[in-house]
Structures are given as C-alpha cells and as structure tokens.
Amino acid sequence: LCLFFYIYLETGLNSANSQITTKKRCEEEDDEIVRQEKESCNPTEVRMSQIVMPCHCNHRQELSVGQLLKWMDSTACLSAERHAGSPCVTASMDDIDFEHTISVGQVVNIQAKVNRAFNTSMEVGIQVSCEDLFQDRHWRVCHAFATFTVCCFNAFVSKVTLRPIAPQTHKEKVEYSIAAERRRVRMVHDDIIKDLLSSGSIQPDSLSGYNAVQAEKTKVESVELVLPPHANHQVNTFGGQIMAWMVNVAMIAASRLCQAHPTLRTIDMFTFRGPSKVGDRLLLRAIVNNAFKSSLEVGVRAEAYQEEGPNRHINSAFMTFEVLDKSGKPCALPRIRPEPVEGERRFQEAIARKKIRLDSVAFVSSSQTSVYLSYNNVSALKMLAAKKSWRLSTEKDQVCLYTLEQKSMLSIRVEKVVDVPAATAFALLAELSNRTLWDTHYKECELIQRVDEDDFIYRVVTPSVLQGKVGSPTSSPQKEEILQDFILLTSVRKPCSPGDPYVIALRSVTLPTHPPFEKCNRGEVLCAGFTILETENKKSLIRYYNQASPEVLPYISNDVAGLSSSFYHTFCACSEYLIQHKLHPTAEADQQQTLETPSPTKTLQSTQL
C-alpha cells in the first residue's frame, strides 16, 4: 500500500510540475512575442502624443471627441503617406467604440501603421491610449481602422498602384490576414441596412409613445466656412475637421432630447463621398433618429456648396450617445416621435443598426449581410492559426498533432503535406457534403442554404459523445445510438495575394427554421476549419484546426493522451481522398452550382449566432 501511495504521489507531483513548467514556458514565449513586438520597427508606424489642454476639452474638462478624431486622422494620414510616398486622403473610417474618457492634464498617445495595402487603397490601424503622468497609469481608449487612397496629381495617371506590405511581427501578420475580411465588410456596408429592412427581418417598433418628444425639436443646422487653417497640405478640407464639426452638431441634437450633457459612445462606419476645399461652405444637419431605453442615435449629414451650384453630399454618420448619472451608469431617456415618411425611415434604420451592434449581425440575408458572420468566422480561424504557443503532441507518418492551451480552452492542429496542388485540395475540401466520403465521424452532411458564392450553411450529423439527455426533454433508449447534429456556417476564401493560404472556416450558427431534433443532441463548433498553403513541387501543407467544445473534447483528449489515433486515421483518409480525386476536383463543385440561391427574404428568416 505504501509503495502504491508513493507511486501515486510521485506521479501527481510530476504531473503538477509538468503543468507548472508548461505554464511557465508559455508565459516566457508570450513575453518573447511582446519583446519582439517592441523591438520591431515598422517603417509605416507613426506615433503622436498630445497633452490635453483646457482648450481641447468640453464643459466637464474631458477631451472633446471631435479633437480626438482630428488627432487620429492626422496620425493615420501620416502613416499612409509614409507608405505611399504621396499625399493621401481619408476614404472611410470603421466603427469606433470609445471605452473611456480623457481628462484635462492627461496625455493621449496615438499609434498608427498600415496593416495592408491593396491595389489602390490601404488599411491603417489606429490605437489610442491614455497616460496619467502623475500616477504612472496607462489604459486603452479606443481603436479604429481607416482606409486611405492616394491623391494623384498626374493628369496621365488615373490611379496609383501601391506596393504590398511585408508584415514582420506576429501581430502584424494577424492584422494583415484579417484586413482582407474587413475590406469585404466595407464594400457592402451601405447596402446592409437596406437589405435588413426590405426583407422584413426588423420588426416595426412603435412610432409614438406617452410623452414622446417630437424629433423636429432636436433638429440642428449649422454652416461652417472652410478656411485655410481647416485644410490639409493638399488644400482639401481636413477629414478630421469635418468629423469634429459633425460631432459638435450631433452633441447639440442629443442634448436637446435628453436636456443634459450626453457622452458619445460609438460612431458607425462612414465613408467620405467627395472632397471639400478651402472656400466651401459646409452645411451640417443633425437630428435624433431614435431613442432607446438608455441610448440614442443621432444622424448627421454634411454637404458642401459654393456661392453658386448645387449642394454636394460629403459625408453621413450615425453616432450613439448615453447620459450618465453621478455613479457613471446610463440614465433612462425619453422616447422620440419621428417625422412622417423620412423620419419613420430613419427611426426603423436606427433599430436595424442597433441590432447589428448588439447581435454582431445575427442575420444572414443576402451576400451583403452575410459578410459580418463570415468575417467573424474567417477572422477567428486566422487568429487561432496565428497563435505562437502550439506544442507538438504526437507525430506519426508525417501527420503531426499540435495542441494549444489558453486559460480554460484547448485547441488542436493536425497537419500534413499532401501531394496535391493547393487549388485542387481547396476545391475538394470546400465542398463539405463530400466529407462523408473520408471522415467516419460525418454520418450525414446536408447543404441547407447557399448564402453567396463564398458562404454556405450545412447540417452535419455525427455520433454523440454525450450519453445524457437528447435534444429536448425526451430521451432515447440506451441501446439506440445517440447522434448529435451541428448547423455550420462554412466560409471559403481564396488567397488575396501570393503567400496567403486558402481558408475554409467553420462555426456554429442557429437557424430557427432548423431547431434541434428530438433524437439528436445539438452540438456547437466554436472555431474550426482548414488552411491550405502551396509548397514546393506543387504540394500542399494542409492544416486542420479545432477549438475544443464539449462535443469534441473526449476525442481530442484521447488523441493528446495517446489513447486514440482517430485524428491520424481521419487525416490519412483525407489525404487518400484528395490524391484519388485530384484529377477531377470540380466535379462536385459543379453540382453545387446548380443549386438555386435562395431569395433574400427566405434566407433572412433569421440565422442567429
């Protein structure tokens, strides 16, 4: 007994020491990554530090958001011009969430660098932090992504082609990879609200209420004359100045509704539709579109005009405000009664924008609105693949199994080089319904919905590892095989530039039209998928990722512990399937092209995260 107890104790101590060593090694690796990030010198990086003076602040002695936007736009523009070698202008700015306010006497630190350059535009990432000089404290205020284009003064050249960015650090490579997905979102941003409203997915809200305030009372109209101090070095009106003026009129409109001093929380993505120059008159209009329980949305429109000629639409933006009490909690706000026709349209659009913000777009309607779901899907897989702390667990016949432990989450990566061109492997693996031919865990795989040419929704049935209750309160006899099913959004992406991998990303979504079956457990895939990279001699490095959920954890734990080799056999079957079908990679894909794309209204019957 003493001998067994000693062996048990020794094993436990070794296991504990091993866990401590692994944790320490991971922490050292993280510190090394941070050190490399600090030592790296990005040629496009620009830093700005400004001490907040009383002239920069509002009545509460807090930094004006308009002033902060001017500093952010200046820093980002300098970064873009450093890469382009030519004057640049702001094309758009993504959503901005302001996490904290900045007080007078504190220091604002702004860092901007080009994440990725496309053909004629580039994405600049902006990080804003605050520093308290007397308490030696730092905290993040907000981050944003701006798109810049190059100004071409040569009459014989219509556009300037930008040279590509070469990311160096781990963080730069992640941002470089995900920038392509953010670009997809920007390109269809203007059509998203229209699609949501036209398909009837947004339930009409009450347009009036008890003691509701008429929207006309919140209207603000202001004219600004563009003077030389308001212009940039290209004699165009500085984009940051336009944003500051828009924030000013929006603040007045919000104050008229709540009869208090509101705090700006978010600015939705906006696009500059045209330039403005010195001598222009900028007409700024603002009105409260809708008021919710503790927040309100203000719409702002900027138009430019000369003494003669029509008004030119420069920009539109939507800003969300809150009114905070003495303890910093949001106060209840009065309801709004919109104007007929146009006011009612803005009222309903505000509801749609709020739903997008809160639900991270819980709908898949057309090819436009699906990009938000697919963006989350693809970016999650790319960020998982970019992690540096992967550990080799087992290796057999060139099939390698890696694990990644982060807090309470376990992820796996299985990889192998296959003698199949990357494009062919991508075409075969992207058709998820064919996975039943090589993966024994896939009992059924049915295409439910073709959202667009790059995004599909499948229902997958696999054996269940949960032997408890099934689906709803009903249960199955113990002798009957218990199954589980998944509703998976599959997003496929081809490389945007040489060196990028093919991506097949999988994640679970919820379709009210496909509720859980009584004889199936409804499983969840947090993040999974393939990356396929072209190697030498037209071979492919295929990597499969899976972030462990309760439905797959028993399989992963057995493989990691060496008690099972299911991943090895499955990956070998996948390799054999690819080799056997590499001469006819598009046979199944052609069959899918014949499927009818559902109408936006039918598809929008709501796909929720």
UniProtKB/TrEMBL annotation:
It is found in: Cytoplasm. Pathway: Lipid metabolism; fatty acid metabolism. Residues 589-609 are annotated as: Disordered. Its main location: cytoplasm. It catalyses: butanoyl-CoA + H2O = butanoate + CoA + H(+). InterPro entries: Cytosol_ACT (IPR040170), HOTDOG_ACOT (IPR033120), HotDog_dom_sf (IPR029069), START-like_dom_sf (IPR023393), START_lipid-bd_dom (IPR002913), Thioestr_dom (IPR006683). PROSITE patterns: HOTDOG_ACOT (PS51770), START (PS50848). CDD domains: BFIT_BACH (cd03442). Residues 42-154, 216-327 form the HotDog ACOT-type domain. It holds the Pfam family START. This is Acyl-CoA thioesterase 11a. It comes from Oryzias sinensis (Chinese medaka).
